Amino acid sequence: MVIVMIGGALYFGIDKKIVLFITIVMGVFTQLFTGLGALVGMIPWVGPLIIKVVSIPVFWVLNAMGYVVSGVAIKKGYATELAKSRIVTLGLLIGVILGYILGHLIPLR
Fold first, then answer.
1. Local structure of residue 77 (DSSP, 8 states)
2. Is residue 28 part of a domain?
3. Which pLDDT tens digit goes with each residue over 46-66?
4. Any transmembrane segments, and where (predicted)?
């Protein structure tokens, strides 16, 4: 995804120095929040609870954005394409769940 975004920025004529700066800043902030989350998560009993309280609203916002984009797509007449993408997503989720279950039923050792 990062490569696609960088390629798109360069395709639309954004200066290479700006793209490089934004990429480095995003990488630093990603590492910072990941490390901070790992440190907070290591606090016994309270750490995992804090991480859940912080991360669950992020997923709610992403889910809400998906619903809004889906509503706009349906209004613009992309209902069949949206249905196809939902079927593919459902298939992937079922595959992940089945893989998880089979991975616990059939150990590799």
1. T
2. yes
3. 999 999 898 899 889 988 998
4. 18-43, 49-74, 86-106
**Main-chain dihedrals φ then ψ at residue 23, nearest 5 degrees:** -65, -45
Q: Is residue 15 part of a domain?
A: yes
pLDDT tens digits, residue range 29-43?
A: 999 999 999 999 999
Domain enclosing residue 9, as ranges: 1-42
92 inside domain: no
The overall longest dimension of the chain from CA atoms, in Å, is 53
The string of DSSP codes covering 2-69 is HHHHHHHHHHTT--HHHHHHHHHHHHHHHHHHHHHHHHHHTSTTHHHHHHHHHHHHHHHHHHHHHHHH
Question: Quick one: tokens of 61?
Answer: 């916002």
